[in-house]
Amino acid sequence: MSDFQRSSASPTTWTPATAGGSVFSQPGDVARVLRNTYALLSMTLLFSGGVAAAAVAFQWPAPGMLLTLVGYFALLFGIHRMRNSAMAIPLVFALTGFMGWSLGPLLSLYLKLPGGANTIALALATTGGTFLALSAYVLATKKDFSFMGGFLFAGMIVALLAAVANIWLQMPVMGLVISGVVALLSIGLILFETSNIVNGGERNYVMATVGLFVSLFNLFTSLLSIFGFAGSSDD
């Protein structure tokens, strides 16, 4: 049985060593959290992609801004509350599936545009390549990016508020700027989350998975907007 299967019922089944009153993570503990995080992340990405594909194929309607925000934050709150219980895993799949549903109508919109399929493929490839490069860099250097946490969190809040405001303002240039900012913040969050695992700051693979998934989702949708804007400008 794999490490992921053994610990799926309780995301924090391992115990860190203590010395001098401080908590330190053993190399084996870090490796286990990494394996479980990447295993769960792979499954949730496939599941979310499947839901998004179904939403495109069956032309599911978009959930709307209000339902999207309420559903996202409610599921995120539930995962945080249940992060040390067996219910955490189903909630993670519920969140990622919900996000896949919200992505489906957006993909349908791009597929109707000239070159839309190429835009989606480019955004997907760039997201995957960026994630692999950033992960490899942190794993190789073990550099600590924890100092970025407060700045990245505040930046995402500002970007979210700006995005909501732009729903009414309908300013394409502002939307492009927001997408660029979110893409950069998402890259920073991938570095932050990965270094947090590698350096023992994150001991719960469920929360690590959610953090990385949301960052990848935001990076993909931001790149989709940027590449789509660039493609429309060329036309």
From TrEMBL:
Alphabetical keyword list: Cell membrane, Membrane, Transmembrane, Transmembrane helix
CDD domains, sorted: YccA_like (cd10433)
Compartment list: Cell membrane
PANTHER family reported for this sequence: BAX INHIBITOR-RELATED, MODULATOR OF FTSH PROTEASE YCCA
Family: Belongs to the BI1 family.
Protein name: Membrane protein
Principal subcellular localisation of the protein: membrane
Residue stretches spanning the membrane: 38-56, 62-79, 91-111, 117-140, 147-168, 174-192, 204-230
Source species of the chain: Roseateles depolymerans
Lineage: Bacteria, Pseudomonadati, Pseudomonadota, Betaproteobacteria, Burkholderiales
Domain of life: Bacteria
Membrane protein topology class: Multi-pass membrane protein
A Gene Ontology term for the protein's cellular component: plasma membrane
